[in-house]
């Protein structure tokens, strides 16, 4: 079951989402919020898989709020303003619903979220398939030391090889189990494979990965 909440400052918009959600058998809409901060606080206390999120709201925009969410949280933007679409997808939003949206379009977005959830690895799986120019390559988590982001590409450093994939860093983080932690805005590392943790860097085998002050508390 896909667990979701909706955040929108317009009451009628929330009612539309509530009505549509009731017709989607694999979706459980747990709560509706007209206040963005209240919705964010709810999600911190009771994390959900998916947030239907308006963009143009008082106090804090949906764009800003989306940037505060954990990487694994899926976001579907719901807005009356098409000019926000590009920015929404830059934030790796799963979909973008332009108001007023019919049930068929809402269902398509929900199905995309359900499909994405099913593709996510669990820690018991122990692996994930990464798309490269040579096709899909299996990556075992225990062999993955760390990942480094450069623009729209991510380099995966394994025990015996390096793999380059065209994806954003946020997309890469969604594929990793919880023992991979961010050490820097461009690096995420396997906490189980760290040989030495210092103030400004960690050692993983022959590699040294930087640690920034904002992420030091995660180690």
TrEMBL record:
Domain HTH LytTR-type: 130-219
All residue ranges annotated as the Response regulatory domain in the record: 3-114
InterPro entries: CheY-like_superfamily, LytR-like, LytTR_DNA-bd_dom, Sig_transdc_resp-reg_receiver
Domain of life: Bacteria
Molecular function terms from GO: DNA binding
SMART domains: LytTR, REC
Residues recorded as bearing 4-aspartylphosphate in the entry: 54
Keyword entries, A-Z: DNA-binding, Phosphoprotein
Gene3D superfamilies named in the record: 3.40.50.2300, LytTr DNA-binding domain (2.40.50.1020)
The protein, known as: LytTR family DNA-binding domain-containing protein
Organism: Cyclobacterium jeungdonense
């Amino acid at each position: 079951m896909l667990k979701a909440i909706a955040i929108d400052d317009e009451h009628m918009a929330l009612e539309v989402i509530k009505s549509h959600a009731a017709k989607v058998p694999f979706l459980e809409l747990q709560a509706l919020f007209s206040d963005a901060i209240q919705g964010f606080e709810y999600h911190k206390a009771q994390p959900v898989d998916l947030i239907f999120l308006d963009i143009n709201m008082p106090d804090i925009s949906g764009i800003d709020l989306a940037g505060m969410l954990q990487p694994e949280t899926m976001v579907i933007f719901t807005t009356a303003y098409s000019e926000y679409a590009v920015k929404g997808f830059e934030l790796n939003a799963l979909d973008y619903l332009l108001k007023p949206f019919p049930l068929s379009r809402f269902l398509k977005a929900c199905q995309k979220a359900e499909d994405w959830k099913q593709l996510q690895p669990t820690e018991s799986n122990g692996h994930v398939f990464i798309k490269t120019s040579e096709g899909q390559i299996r990556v075992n988590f225990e062999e993955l030391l760390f990942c480094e982001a450069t623009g729209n590409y991510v380099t995966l450093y394994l025990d015996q090889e390096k793999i380059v994939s065209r994806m954003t860093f946020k997309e890469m983080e969604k594929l990793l189990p919880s023992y991979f932690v961010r050490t820097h805005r461009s690096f995420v590392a396997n906490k189980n494979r760290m040989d030495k943790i210092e103030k400004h860097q960690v050692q993983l085998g022959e590699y040294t990965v930087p640690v920034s002050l904002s992420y030091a508390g995660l180690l």
